[in-house]
Input
Amino acid sequence: MPLIKSISGIRGTIGDIEGENLTSKDIVKFTSAFVTILVKNNKIKSRKIVVGRDARISGPMVEKIVIDTLINLGLDVICLGLSTTPTVEIAVTEEKADGGIIITASHNPINWNALKLLNEKGEFINENEGKELIKVSESQEFIKVQEKNGNIFFKNNYISIHIDKILELNSIDVDLIKKKRFKIVVDAVNSTGGIAIPMLLEKLNVDCVKIFCDPTGEFPHNPEPLPENITELSKSVVKNKADLGIITDPDVDRLAFVCEDGVVFGEEYTLVACADYYLSLHKGSTVSNLSSSRALRDVTKTHDCEHFFSAVGEVNVVELMKRKNAVIGGEGNGGVILPELHYGRDALVGIALFLSHLAKQNVKVSKLRKSYPNYFISKRKIMIDENIDFDQLIKSISNRYTNEMISNIDGLKIDFKNSWVQLRKSNTEPIIRVYAEAKTKEKAEELSKKFLEEIRG
Output
C-alpha cells in the first residue's frame, strides 16, 4: 500500500516487515522537502521549527529522524517531546518559529504514524503547498538553510502554557466550573491526552477519574472516538457516578463526551454544544464541513447567525472560517476550532467551553443533549479497489439524482428534504467514506447501506 499524501499529512504504517510504507528514508525525504519549500517561499525568518509528538510507540524513532534532518539542514529545533497537536500549533506562534512538524497519525491504528506540517501561523500547510511538497520530495532537490548545523532546545512546559491561554479566555467561566466540582472520567487512549486533560481539569477543580491515561502508546482500543470504542468509558462513568466522561484521539484534536447515564453524547454534538454556548456570548457565523451534522446549522440559526459548509479537511474549514469571519467552527468528528485562541482543532478548549456551558445551564449532560435537534449519522466505509475511477463513479451516481440538491465540492453530497448522503475519498485511509444523516437511526443506516450497494454496483 502506498503512502497517503494529503492535506492531512504524510501517513503510513511502520514496523510491518512486508507492509511497512513509512520508512526512515521517507521521513528524511519529506522533512527535507518541507524545509525546501519554506526556503523557496521565503518563509525562513527565525530558523526555528517546533517538533512534538503523540505517544505512539514509533514516535521516538520518527522524532529522532525528523530532528536530525532539521538540524543537518541548518535549523534550530524546539522539541516539545510528548505533546498534543493543538499545543504544537500554539508553540509555533509563541516561539515565532518558521513552522512545525507534529508526529502523529491522529485516529489511525497503532501501527501508523505520520508527519503533520504547519506553517509559521501554526496552521496546516494548504493544498498548493502540499502539492509543491510532493513535487520536491520526488525530485529530491533539497535546499539547506545554512551549512552550519542547527541546535536542539527541549521545552516541556507548553501544555501548561496552552492550558493557561485557554483559562484566560473571557468565554471560559473558570469560577463557575470550579464551584460545580464536577466528577469526570477521562479516557485518553494511553496517549498525550493523559497528560494534558487531567492537568486542565485539575486547574478547574474537577475530580478526575483516569482510565487509559498512561502515555505508553499502547492503545487499549481503536483510537478513533466513535461510539463502538467508548464502551469502557461509558461503564466507568456509571460505575463512578460521574457527571460525564471525556474521550479524545491520540493527538487530542478530536473530542467526544459520555452522559452521566453512560449514553454517548455523540461526537457530532461536541461542536454543536460548544458553538451554542459561544454564540450566546459572541454573535457571528459558524463553519463545519460537508460531512458534519445539520444540527450545527440549526443551532446557529437559533442565534440569528449564518452557517456555512466547507470541504472536508481542517485546512478547508479554516480557509472558509477566515473568509466568512466565523467566530467558531470545526468538524463533526469532535473537532472544535476557536479562532480567538488559534485556528486549529483543539480538544482542550472544547472541554473548557463545554464545561462552561454545562455549569451555566446547570443541567445533567443527558438533558443538555436532548435540547438539540435530533439527527442520526451513519458512517460507513469501503476499501478502494485500484480499478475504481472515483470521479466516474460519483458522476454516474449523481446522474441518478438530478432532481435533488447536489454538491461536488468534496466528492458527492446529495441533500434530500429530511436527510443527506455523502461519498468521498478519505484523506487519511485508502477507503471511500459513505456518510448519511436522517431523523432516525434506521433511516440513516438504510440510506448509507443503499449507497454502499450503489458503489459496489
Q: What stands out?
A: DSSP finds 15 helices and 21 strands in the chain.
